[in-house]
Amino acid sequence: MKIKNIRAYRHQFKLTRPYKIAYKTHTTAENVIVEITTDEGKIGLGAASPSPEVTKETIDACLTSLVNSTSWCEGRNIDEFSLLKRECYAHLTATPAACAAMDIALHDLYAQTLNKPLVEVLGRVHHQLPTSITIGIKNVEETLQEAEEYISRGFKVLKVKLGSNLEEDMVRLIKLREHFTNTITIRVDPNQGYTLQDLIVFLDKTKELKIEFVEQPLKVSDTSQLYQLPKHYLNMIMLDESVLNAKDAIKMLTPSPCCGIFNIKLMKCGGIHGALQIASLAETSGIDLMWGCMDESIISITAALHAAFSSPATKYIDLDGSLDLENDVVTGGFHLVDGMMSTVDSPGLGVRKIG
Ligand SMILES: [Mg+2]
Fold it and tell me: Is the pLDDT of residue 343 over 70?
């Protein structure tokens, strides 16, 4: 089966719930969708959600890469999958989200040709995991209101965005824990908003609140200061913006791990191939994994879920990125029941194009 054509186009989603994090407010999201068509009419789908703040890739650069740097793939046989996914990295290194979109579409197509769900091709380890759902930076009342709504929808894990004011952050968490006692899991993400001193105060003062982990508390440039934390605190630190790809992961493990958890996002590391490189390093080094996302179509959220379920190091998922999108381009992909995610039992990613 030969690759006949590659099409890439922009798609803008409206967010049903605009949200604020430490450095910006989001009201819409734009993805680049990729469709690889074969001579037998099969279609592999991929999606890119570039993040200029994190990987320095704009939506324009992403689309330009996908329009100009994918002709090497045309006419090639999908049986060459292992080679194709490596070549994809060589051609699209400068634009990791564009690379992820191609990589996801190639994985979807290859698993479809084997007539198996992608996770079965990668080697399934997990069948289902609870995803967190994110609450942006809000006041106490709005935080409690939103938490109440998510819990009524069945979610049991909340990820609370912090980082604009340490005192307010702590008050919000104390109120959340008071309100929901021990019925929910709370994880937090200050998005680089803390200094080392802030972080130590935060960890000391929130000890009783049973915070599951703290994601990317310090600026990327301050990451090495994490070595000054006591070991029991170090293990509950997750790195996101500090770990874009496998090269960064190696740095974070040297000379010894400066965190306990990596947050893998397909859009940072160029897709499933790059993500599984990080996953192997984590597995070897005793680091736990969370699989996270941007505002992404069901296509790439599903791809992350398949990859997550194939790694023994996977402990957490935070794959809520498609839940607030109006007008997605596909349906299917995953089941979400009471906050628990699982893959659908269909070949490839199991997504269906709308229209
Ligand atoms: Mg994060």
Answer: yes
Q: Are 48 and 98 in contact (CB under 8 A)?
A: yes
On the question of pLDDT at 128 being above 90, the answer is: yes
78 CA from centroid of ligand 1 (Å): 35
Overall average pLDDT of the 132-146 stretch: 96
List CB contacts of 209: < 8 A, sequence separation 6 or more: 173, 174, 177, 186
Q: Is the peptide bond before 255 cis (omega within 30 degrees of 0)?
A: yes
Question: Ligand 1 center to residue 182 CA distance, Å?
Answer: 24
Q: How far is the CA of 261 from the centre of ligand 1 (A)?
A: 12
Fold agreement between 3-115 and 120-353: no
Q: Residue 21 Cα, ligand 1 centroid: separation in angstroms?
A: 9
Question: Distance (Å, rounded) from C-alpha 34 to C-alpha 171?
Answer: 44
Pair type for strands 157-161 and 132-135:
parallel
Distance 320 CA to ligand 1 centre (A): 12
Question: What's the CA gap between 11 and 173, in Å, rounded?
Answer: 36
Q: Specify the fold of 3-115.
A: Enolase-like; domain 1 (3.30.390)
Please report, for the chain, the start and end positions of each structural domain, with discontinuous segments joined by +: 3-115, 120-353
Q: Ligand 1 centroid to 9 CA: how many Å?
A: 27
Could you tell me the pLDDT band of residue 23, with boundaries at 50, 70 and 90? Answer: low
Q: What is the mean pLDDT of the chain?
A: 96
Q: How far is ligand 1, taken at its centre, from the CA of residue 75, in Å?
A: 39
d(CA 162, CA 183): 21
Q: Which CATH superfamily is domain 120-353 in?
A: Enolase-like C-terminal domain (3.20.20.120)
Q: What is the pLDDT of residues 226-241, one digit of tens each?
A: 999 998 999 999 999 9
> pLDDT band at 181, cuts 50/70/90?
confident
| Better pLDDT: 22 or 271 | 271
Average pLDDT over residues 243-267: 98
CA distance 19 to 48: 20
